[in-house]
Write a structure and sequence with these properties.
By secondary structure, the protein is α/β, with parallel strands linked by helices. The protein folds into two domains: about 190 residues, FAD/NAD(P)-binding domain; about 110 residues, FAD/NAD(P)-binding domain. The chain has seven helices and 17 strands. Strands 1, 2, 3, 4, 5, 6 and 17 form a seven-stranded mixed β-sheet that branches. Strands 8-15-9-10-11 form a five-stranded parallel β-sheet, covered by helices on one side. It is elongated.
Length: about 325
């Protein structure tokens, strides 16, 4: 019987593991299929995590998370590279069902499964995904060195990755459906200063065009004028938000085991408690998540401290 099962190995899960084990819990396991670190490891630059800063070159997401792992596992946190299919409460405890049918019992659970990039829904997006269409500039930007690319989106991630790409590729065509950006003013200002970033505003991507060799061009439509044009770029990077990964919180009938909102985000209080006693949620999966590393880490710490209190109260 585990004291706590942590599902998800991003900043929230790792922080939860650190605080739970350092707080005295002996049997804590983090379930994460790959190496811990989470989605942030794909980020090309981190400049807003307190105490971690380097101007040139900037600290990458991978560098940031590399330093977390030895610290978070130092106090006894265990890592199981197994996929969790379902979390269920059975009596006073939780049953964690793993891929293949194996089950693990735990007194409490902290779910930190995060979110994944949304698809934009334009024609050809699925067909050319991985063959020109990407959601990770750090992963795929190098393939387009010296070539033009298109970036779709208007938030912080889209502009940060457009800036990152502008140092690798010849030109970046930044497509956004509005004429203003949701990104931080400092990020917008930095993008505006780049000569090889070209703004394509009030516009959407209509279609990814290519052949058996991959993406060749992107069809863009202006929402105000209806004008269509072709951007001859072999790379298209899509940054239009995220979907929460909430499947592990559904029962066999497809119903959530705790309260969620219309978007499938888990309703929690300030202590990361869900409507199901003993179940806590941290990071991007919860309601009103800022989707920032520092916030996810704080969520994980709060959840772990509450787990310790919950177990003490049940004893």
């Amino acid at each position: 019987m585990l004291d706590c099962a942590i599902i998800g190995g991003g900043p929230a899960g790792l922080s939860a593991g650190l605080y739970a084990t350092r707080g005295g819990l002996k049997d804590v396991t983090l379930f994460e299929m790959g190496l811990p670190g989470g989605q942030i490891t794909q980020s090309s630059e981190i400049e807003n995590y307190p105490g971690v800063f380097r101007e040139d070159p900037p600290v990458t997401g991978m560098e940031l998370m590399e330093a977390w792992q030895p610290q978070c596992f130092h106090f006894g946190l265990k890592h199981e590279m197994k996929k969790v299919e379902r979390v269920a409460k059975t009596g006073e405890h939780f049953t964690i069902t793993l891929e293949g049918g194996e089950t693990v019992e735990s007194k409490t659970a902290i779910v930190c499964t995060g979110s994944t990039p949304k698809r934009a829904g334009f024609k050809g997006e699925d067909e050319f995904f991985g063959r020109g269409v990407s959601t990770c500039a750090t992963c795929d930007g190098f393939f387009y060195k010296g070539k033009p690319v298109t970036v779709l989106g208007g938030g912080d991630t889209a502009l940060e990755e457009a800036y990152y790409l502008s140092n690798i590729v010849s030109d970046v065509y930044l497509v956004h459906r509005r004429d203003t950006f949701r990104a931080a003013p400092s990020t917008v200002e930095r993008v505006m200063r780049k000569d090889n970033i070209h703004l394509v505003l009030d516009s959407v991507v209509e279609e990814a065009i290519g052949d058996a060799t991959g993406l060749q061009a992107v069809k863009v439509k202006n929402l105000k004028t209806g004008e269509e044009k072709i951007l001859e770029t072999p790379g298209l990077f899509v940054f239009v938000g995220h979907n929460v990964n909430n499947e592990v919180l559904k029962d066999p009938s497809g119903n959530f085991i705790c309260e969620t909102n219309e978007q499938g985000q888990v309703v929690v209080d300030l202590s990361m408690r869900t409507s199901l006693p003993g179940l806590f949620v941290a990071g991007d999966l919860r309601i009103e998540a800022p989707k920032q590393v520092v916030s996810a880490a704080g969520d994980g710490a709060v959840a772990a401290l509450q787990v310790i209190s919950y177990i003490q109260e049940q004893s």
